[in-house]
Amino acid sequence: MEEMKPQKLEKKEQEIVFSKSIKAGKRIYYIDVKRNRKDDLFVAITESKKIISGFDEDIKVSYEKHKIFLYKEDFDKFVESLNDVITFIKMNDSSDADEPKDNFSDIHEASPSLPTEFSIEEFEK
Questions:
Q1: Partner residues linked to 5 by β-bridges
Q2: What is the model's pTM?
Q3: Of the candidates 39, 20, 40, the residue with the CA atom closest to the CA atom of residue 28
Q4: 13, 37, 113 from 96: Cα distances, Å
Q5: 3-class DSSP state of 98
Q6: Element (DSSP H or E) covering residue 122
Q7: Which of 1, 21, 27, 59 has its CA 20 to 30 A from that of 47?
Q8: Cα separation of the two ends of the chain
Q9: What is the phi/psi pair of residue 113, to 5°?
Q10: Cross-strand partners of 60
């Protein structure tokens, strides 16, 4: 029986094939490429938010996690929709400008470090 425990741990460690993390304040986003039982790759996106409760000596730290699983057959639709909503926000967000942007190239000129769009190749790397 003890031989099975290391095998399970080894299998669990092999589950994540590739991973990126993004730190954003109290949140961390993990974008993991995982392999399912049929040996197919998929993307798992996890938002982990640090929650602090209590006072002084009674402070407790916990993490709230939310996951999204994205499968290969949905990559194109997901990337297209993500590009659409990001473009919409950048063109219509009034918090950093008085007027909406006319088009996406105006946004990119104002923020050249931002990617002009996401591509399916980024998910397949």
A1: none
A2: 0.61
A3: 20
A4: 43, 46, 16
A5: coil
A6: helix 120-124
A7: 59
A8: 38
A9: -75, -15
A10: 53
**Token pair recorded at residue 52:** 């602090």
Average pLDDT, the chain: 77
Integer CA distances (angstroms), 11 to 20, 30, 71, in order: 20, 20, 20
Give me 34's structure tokens. Answer: 């995982």
Q: Which CATH fold would you assign to the domain 4-124?
A: Nuclear Transport Factor 2; Chain: A, (3.10.450)
d(CA 62, CA 67): 16
The residue type at 33:
V
Question: pLDDT tens for residues 17-44?
Answer: 999 999 999 899 999 999 988 889 999 9
Written as six digits, the tokens of 33 are 């490429």
Phi and psi for 70 in degrees, rounded to 5?
Answer: -125, 125
Per DSSP, 119 falls in state: -
